[in-house]
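--- STAGE predict ---
source: upstream dedup step, 1 unique chain passed
mode: sequence only
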Amino acid sequence: MSDQKWWLFYSKRCPHSMQFIEIASKIPEVSKKIAQVEVELNKDRLPQWLKSVPTLQTDDGVISGPELLKWIEEKSKKDLEPSPMTTSGGGFDINPYSSLNGSDDSFKTFSSIGSKNGSEGMEECKQDSSGKSLDQMQTERAADIRSLMA
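--- STAGE serialize ---
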């Protein structure tokens, strides 16, 4: 097999797509090579030839529909090992934020629940350091704006 990536165009709403992913995730030889493209999240970047999901673009061409499910069933008969962990750069994690260029930068701007994200201590900031309430500050701001416009 070549080291080239294969592209799986799929939809989470399509039972055949999810069936393909379930079977393919159990075949390391296949799952390591597949980069996923969720069609609903990438409508503006889909190839014009794409007509249905699931569709797999491989080194040998494009496979879709019933032929794709037959193809993956054949592969599953040859190799039934569990797929690699998603951290190994292969496998399936059904990530709606996966990139088309294969980079894993999509989560750098997100933090997990409970991690520090810059909003700690917000409950202590109910008033500014001058002791003014929000209503007082809004009234002063409105007066400032009126004086600038006069």
